[in-house]
Amino acid sequence: MAITLTEAAADRVRTFMDQRGKGVGLRLGVKTTGCSGMAYVMEYADVVEDDDVVFDDHGVKILVNPKSLVYLDGTELDYAREGLNEGFQFKNPNVKDECGCGESFNI
Prior knowledge:
It is a single chain. This protein is α/β, with parallel strands linked by helices. The chain is 20% helix and 45% strand. The chain has helices at 7-20, 66-72, and strands at residues 4-5, 25-33, 37-45, 53-57, 60-64, 76-82, 85-91, 97-98, 105-106. It has a four-stranded mixed β-sheet with strand order 3-2-5-4.
């Protein structure tokens, strides 16, 4: 099981964490919501929880709870700019379908 970051995503996470001035890594997860059933959750983590699965990629710790890891295994997180838009993009090989707005998915 693994979750990875592109170099661009890792650079952006490090920049945000430096600006925050604290944190141990990036917490990724999923929640039930949206038109297709699930949505990604991303936040900065200040502590590693006992049940967290921790990955380290490009010097950034990625923390995931075991329930979310089932849905996120194999995911690569990228950071991209497209025209005036920029943001993180999840490349999840487990996704079977996404809603039209791109905010939710199902497996």
